[in-house]
Structures
1.
Amino acid sequence: MNVVTGLQKPSSGKVYIQGYDVAKNMSQARHAIAYCPQRDMIFADLTVWEHLLYIAAVKQVPLKSLRSAAQETLALVNLEEEAEVLSQDLKRGEMKRLSIGMAIIAKPQIVLIDEPTSGLDSTSTRNVWDILLHVRGASTLLLSTHDMTEADVVADRIVALTTGIIVCNASPNYLKNIYGKCSVLILHVLLLAENSLVAILLTKLMLSRLMLGKPDKEQG
């Protein structure tokens, strides 16, 4: 996420946002995106309403539209009853919803969210998912998660990485059709000197059957 947003230079490769190389044209690329990090970046002594007004102004929402943008976002993230509450007094789930609201208030073309429900209970998680599904209808949504249920609910495309390498790029339905039916294999191997090669070969065979490979071009 830091590379995509231009906060960190890539060790290799390039990232393009709306045709702009993030490393070379950072300001143009950032104009199209909003970022919600895993750690909520809020001001303890501002209320929810003040946060939204402030961020809307920073993101150059027209002055005449500030209040309406804040009110619309307040309703979207379901924080109307907490509008005058200081952020330091919010519950964990409410704080995350405020962070998402701050990211989307200016209606960016692309929204990046890092681990949106990490540390939340099931009810708060469901509330965040509802917001993300709404956001997905208006903006391109790119999120990182370790929760496959979350990816299935929110995403229409799942990209899996292993040590920085893309090992899967497919729709949730495609992955469920291919890998949804699972089998359990219990393998007992005696690791002695005379059969260690057999153990290695058997292990490689097992991994080749279980590893998630790249779907072909006919994928969903």
Note: The domain at 32-155 is CATH 3.40.50.300 (Rossmann fold).
2.
Amino acid sequence: LLQEYLKVIKEAKHGRGAGINPCIDCRIFMLKKAKKFADEQKIKFIATGEVIGQRPMSQQKKQIAIIEKESGLKGRIIRPLIDFHNIQGRSRKPQIALAKKFKIKYPHPAGGCLLCEKLKEHFSSQHPVPKGNLKNKAKVSNPCFCIIFTASLLSRPPENMTIHFFFIIRKIQN
């Protein structure tokens, strides 16, 4: 899986965010994996937590349509936060309220791309920032700074870097 994902990072068809993150290609990759699993298990629909406008690169109407089509899941993705709760925009307050209502534990919503967060951890621990250098501190605090390290990462990923994919897949009975 890691080698397949590194290929997605290297050959980002739809471009990148402010860092190494190939957001649209990443979502297509994850949903293709979810589709394969769903097809094997005869699952008809896949539910995601997408919200229009939540993420600037991958959660816009045009990009969501591209992702759905290129993943091979056109008409099979359910987006309950959009479809049933009409949640949109950058604020996560409505999702947090729903999680509390249904007693669902959730991670702190700050941050962004897990790929960039893991790279930030890796590189800032290997290359500590001098205390007096505010310019470098700001750079390290931004999870998207890791574009600088693209070449070294792709040739040899850090051994302790784990890429997690979370799928919410629900079997719908006829």
Note: Helices lie at 2-10, 23-40, 61-70, 80-83, 93-101, 114-126, 134-141, 150-155.
3.
Amino acid sequence: MTEARSERPVGARPPEERSDWTEQDLLTVDEALPRLLDAIAEAERDAGAVTDPEERRTAERRLAAMHEARGQLEANRAARRSR
């Protein structure tokens, strides 16, 4: 066993070997939707102040993706509730 390995607790992985999901805050649909709606409102306010055409297009694409995600979350929630 190497020196570095013997110093780590069993099961611990160094940061470079950890999954991106390790530290994620995983939400239910009911938790995610209000957060997404808040993020959309904030992004819409921010987009209104953008004057650079390229930044404006980027903001519009981001908003379109956020609205699409909102639609998917709402459809998922509706399907779950109709069961």
Note: The mean pLDDT is 84.
